[in-house]
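User: I'm new to structure prediction. If I give you an amino acid sequence, what do you actually give back? Let's try with this one:
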Amino acid sequence: MNLIEVMGRFPDQESCIEHLERIRWRGTPVCPKCERKGRGS
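Assistant: Good question. You get back a string of structure tokens that encode the predicted 3D arrangement of the chain. For your 41 residues, that looks like this:
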């Protein structure tokens, strides 16, 4: 994937973060220290 493709797939920071959350936590982030769910912000 090149930069043009990345920018097309993730037009803003939020869309990129949502994609990474789906990959890592299957949609709902979990704190590795306290195991609380959600982004917290």
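You can read the tokens as a compact description of the fold. Here is one thing that stands out. The CA atoms of residues 2 and 23 lie 20 Å apart.
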